[in-house]
Amino acid sequence: MPYYILLSNLTDEGWKTVKERPERIKEVNKELEAFGVRVISQYAVLGPYDFVNIVEAPNNETVAKVSIELGSRGTIKILSMAAIPIDEFIASVKKS
């Protein structure tokens, strides 16, 4: 299954939710599973983004749907990137 990196920033409303109910972060992970997305790892980070998630999803359309669903709530903005495992990348370069 393809891998994706999701870089996200909370909105003011999102920060309010996390402050009041930090466990909400893991509840959202369960919602992702309902879309067929598996969270492989998740980090709170310092810098231009608030969170980095590495996920597996069936396809680009599923990740787009998740981004729209979560983003429409007004609590988070997500930048999604497809990720190629390095061994697969090297193999594809060698085939050229």
CATH superfamily: Lrp/AsnC effector binding domain/regulation of amino acid metabolism (RAM) domain
Count of alpha/pi helices: 4
**Terminal Cα separation, in Å?**
23 Å
Taken from the alpha-carbon principal axes, the silhouette is elongated
Order of helices and strands: EHHEEHEH
Q: Taking strands numbered 1, 2, ... along the chain, how are they ordered across the largest sheet? A: 2-3-1-4
The helical percent reads 40-55%
Main sheet summary: 4 strands, antiparallel
Strand content: 25-35%
CATH classification, class level: Alpha Beta
CATH fold topology: Alpha-Beta Plaits
What brief labels describe this structure?
96 residues, single chain, 44% helix, alpha+beta, 4 helices, 30% strand, Alpha-Beta Plaits, 4-stranded antiparallel sheet
Quick structural summary:
The chain is of the alpha+beta class and 96 residues long. It has 4 helices and 4 strands.
Overview of this structure, please?
The protein is α+β, with helices and mostly antiparallel strands and 96 residues long. It has one domain (3-95): Lrp/AsnC effector binding domain/regulation of amino acid metabolism (RAM) domain (Alpha-Beta Plaits). Helix content is 44%, strand content 30%. It contains 4 helices and 4 strands; from the N terminus they run E-H-H-E-E-H-E-H. The protein has helices at 12-20, 24-34, 60-71, 86-95, and strands at residues 3-10, 38-44, 51-56, 76-83. It has a 4-stranded antiparallel sheet. The radius of gyration is 15 Å and the shape is elongated. The two termini are 23 Å apart. The model has no long low-confidence stretch (mean pLDDT 96).
